[in-house]
Amino acid sequence: MEKKPRHPRNLAFWLGTGLGSGLAPAAPGTAGSLAALPFIYAAGVFGGAPALAAFLVFWIAASLFTAPGFERCYSEDPALFVADEWAGQTVPFIGISFSGVFAEDVLLLLAGFVLFRIFDILKPLGIKKAEKLPSPLGILADDLLAGVYALILLKLLILLI
């Protein structure tokens, strides 16, 4: 069996692991999504839609550029790689306005988080098919699509409440 090279602990490693959140011993995808929330919230509160869009583009780029190295060193779509979760978790909050009062916004954050994780874990409605796209696009596409579905449901919840 061919031994895979050890991934260097450099900037690409820290981006790919979502600033280390993918190193969680259990449920690294969930840990990565949860770790992204304070950054998403800060971007939304202090910079609004342009900052959230920039945050999303940054994590899409980070995911696409760092995924190949992780696959070389670990496996296909390794669990510790969560840059894709950071990108996907951002999507439900695109076009959502935060009040800036955390006590008021926490339910919105939790709803977006839970909806994203449900779609990302269960992979319904073509998400599983998106995951099968060639790497590194497939690693990212399922999370972005899960984020889109979470965004749609979150918007519906906001309209109904």
Structure description:
Helices cover 68% and strands 0% of the residues. The chain has 161 residues and is mostly helical. The radius of gyration is 16 Å and the shape is globular. Helix 3 runs parallel beside helix 6. The longest helix has 46 residues, at 28-73. The chain has one domain (11-160). It has helices at 11-16, 28-73, 83-90, 102-122, 127-131, 137-160. It has 6 helices and no strands.
Compute the average pLDDT: 94
Question: In which range does the helix fraction lie?
Answer: 55-70%
Kindly state the number of beta strands: 0
Cα distance, first to last residue? 56 Å
Query: How many helix segments?
Result: 6
**How large a portion of the residues is in β-strands, by DSSP E?**
under 5%
Secondary-structure element order, N to C: HHHHHH
Poorly predicted runs:
none
How many individual domains? 1
Structural class: mainly alpha
What is the rounded Rg?
16 Å
Label the overall shape.
globular
